[in-house]
Amino acid sequence: MALELRQQLKLSQQLVMTPQLQQAIKLLQLSRLELVETVNQELMENPFLEEGFDEPEPNLDSEGREPVAQNDVVREMPGDENALRREADWDNYLGDFASASRQSQVREYEALEEGQGFEARLTGKHSLDGHLAWQIRLSDFTEQEMEIAEHILGNLDSSGYLASPVEEIAEITQSGVEDVERVLKRVQRFDPLGVAARDPRECLLVQVEALGYDDPVLVSLISEHLEDLEKKRYKPLARKFKLTLEELKEYLDIIQTLDPMPGSSFGTSEPVYVSPDAYVYKFEDEFVILLNEEGLPRLQLNSMYMDCLQGAKCKEKDYFQEKMRSAVWLMKSLYQRQRTLFKVLESIVKFQRDFFEEGVKHLKPLILKDVADDIGMHESTVSRITTNKYVATPHGTFELKFFFNSALTLDDGSEVGSESVKALIKQLIGEEDSHQPLSDEKIVDILKDKLQVNIARRTVAKYRTALNIPSSSKRKEIF
Q: What are phi and psi of 168, to 5 degrees?
């Protein structure tokens, strides 16, 4: 079969996402802190972008005119149309989207203490390893014991338990198992008590011994019956030790004061800080939406580089035009992002007004399509603008996704939001009698009476699990 070259025409349709469109979509999905970082990065890379600042009031002469130095060159007059087109349209593009007046947006911030640097206010985070190493250095260990203690310290997990067998530590340190056990016993009595234990029983027994509880019943409950206590098998334990339920409860109260995970107070996870993208306040009978502009630079085009563009050579002109288009597109994308965020928030406040008035229990069912139809945008745009965005409300700070929840049908045909049902379940369990906790079936009956909502027991169990609430058998307390 011979190979040959041919030319042919083909008509087809395809969707091409330009880099500018990809940038606009990316800006929609960024959180506020990520947006600030992205804008600052663009300020560093693009010479046509600069941050606008409030200019000081000029000094006027005796006739009320601004003096001009002899060497000053007036680049553009205030009436220059090019200057207005390049700069005036963008000076306050972030401040346009606020339902409050500009005077009401002024906030007072607490000033830093004078005479003390910022670094002086920082402190290192305490870790379990550092806390124990400090105690090891203060102890009268020999060199060999110090080496064993350091290996014990290096084999602790996040809960403070020893993750390696003593035989392995003895082999690594070239010492006897008895020596490792002796050092381990001393380390277990460091602060926090019970650290470096090999299981919860040993951890609790170390704390009981150190605190001076020498009751044999208490020791037996910890060493032999932790599983029975976990599953709340109280009556068989009371019969075995010939105790009343009140006496057994006294032992349980002592056990509950102990810490089964001594290393948990030195957690390694970093806290997650949330900066709200907007604030919603109630003023008289209306809710005011104010976008958070703190830390976000006010962009404008650099007038010096705009002048250089006019007299640039061919190669330089291509570079300047590319950077100028990139700068203008970024400013327009930021404008569009703030505009979209404001419109979505207005729609959410309209649909969820009862929530902003009364709280979570009055959260209504809402889907992305409802907001998209209300503001005349696509659902994907609403989904992107509500991702990683937070709003500060009179009832707390919530992610925008929180306001979108599924619906449960009531007997009268109306609907209630799933988040409202979760809030009611949490309230019912919080107000229950701890000696007779509410079962999932009982919660179903109460929801039927209070809300007239038809909900299955497995749905209640699913919501309870999502709220990190244990079952009724694990919530039960003895008399």
A: -65, -40
Is the pLDDT at 308 greater than 80, yes or no?
Answer: no
Residues 6+ apart with CB under 8 A from 164: 155
Which range scores top for mean pLDDT: 30-44, 47-61, 457-471? 30-44
CB 386 within 8 A of CB 29: no
How far does the chain reach from its first CA to its final CA, in angstroms?
Answer: 93
- Grouping H, G, I as helix, E, B as strand and the rest as coil, residue 333 is helix
Q: Using CA atoms in the order 80, 83, 85, 88, what is the torsion angle rounded to 10 degrees?
A: -110
Q: What is the pLDDT of residues 433-472, one digit of tens each?
A: 777 788 888 888 887 777 677 777 788 887 788 777 887 7
Query: Which whole-number Å values give the CA distances from 249 to 221, 242, 339, 457, 477, in the listed order?
Result: 12, 13, 60, 31, 9
Cα–Cα separations (whole angstroms), residue 239 to 98, 244, 247, 435: 69, 8, 12, 20
CA atoms within 13 A on the CB side of 250: 7
- Give 393-424 as a DSSP string: ETTEEEEGGGG-B-EEEBTTS-EEEHHHHHHH
CB atoms closer than 10 angstroms to residue 297: 18
Q: At what angle do helices 245-256 and 216-224 cross, to 10 degrees?
A: 70
List the beta strands (DSSP E) in 278-410. Answer: 278-283, 286-291, 299-301, 390-393, 396-399, 407-409
Which domains, ranges and CATH numbers included, belong to the chain? 128-266 (1.10.10.1330), 407-475 (1.10.10.60)
Strand blocks (E) in 309-457: 390-393, 396-399, 407-409, 415-417
Cα–Cα–Cα angle for 249, 251, 252, nearest 5°? 60
- What does the pLDDT read at residue 412? 54
Average pLDDT over residues 122-126: 55
CB 250, CB 233: distance < 8 Å = no
Give me the phi and psi of 464, to 5 degrees please: -65, -40
Residue 328 sits at the vertex; the CA angle it makes with 324 and 331, to the nearest 5 degrees, is: 140
pLDDT at 79 over 60: no
